[in-house]
Amino acid sequence: MFILCDFFMKNIIGLNMIIYIMTFYYLTPLNFILTLPLFLLLNHNIFYLFVIILIYTMEHIIKRYINYNLLFRMSLITFYYVILFHIDISYLINIIIVIIIHLSKYNNMGDEGGIKTLSK
Predict the structure, then answer these.
(1) Cβ atoms of 24 and 77 closer than 8 Å
(2) Are 22 and 97 in contact (CB under 8 A)?
(3) What are the phi and psi torsion angles at 27 (to 5°)?
(4) Which residues contact 99 (CB under 8 A, 6 or more apart)?
(5) pLDDT for 73-118, tens place per residue?
(6) pLDDT tens across 1-35, in order?
(7) Residue 111 gets which letter from DSSP?
(8) In this model, does residue 72 exceed pLDDT 70?
(9) Cα angle 23, 70, 75; round to 5
(10) H-type helices in the chain, by residue range?
């Protein structure tokens, strides 16, 4: 669904949206593999496919070893956006979407489901 949203936004309005890349944090490897044929169908550039696979791999390595908060997420999205496009008005819209997705999934402290308490 997010691939189609990105595709239609780019073709109809002309905005470079990366909502599909923003959701990599939440995708399981099986779901990611299932979305690759649709991505390849809509975008015939093999370079973009290679970059998407690298971004997904980097996202999950970082997810495993680094505490994930909003500022870190925004810097990652900036890094991904600069790789794929140049900074323009679409970038600001993407950063707003990152903040909305992050705050709807996490609380303001950055940890999933609320503040984790120590039981010892």
Answers:
(1) no
(2) yes
(3) -80, 140
(4) 70, 74
(5) 788 888 888 888 877 778 888 888 888 877 776 655 555 544 444 4
(6) 677 777 777 777 777 777 788 788 778 889 889 88
(7) S
(8) yes
(9) 80
(10) 2-8, 19-22, 29-42, 46-65, 70-84, 89-105
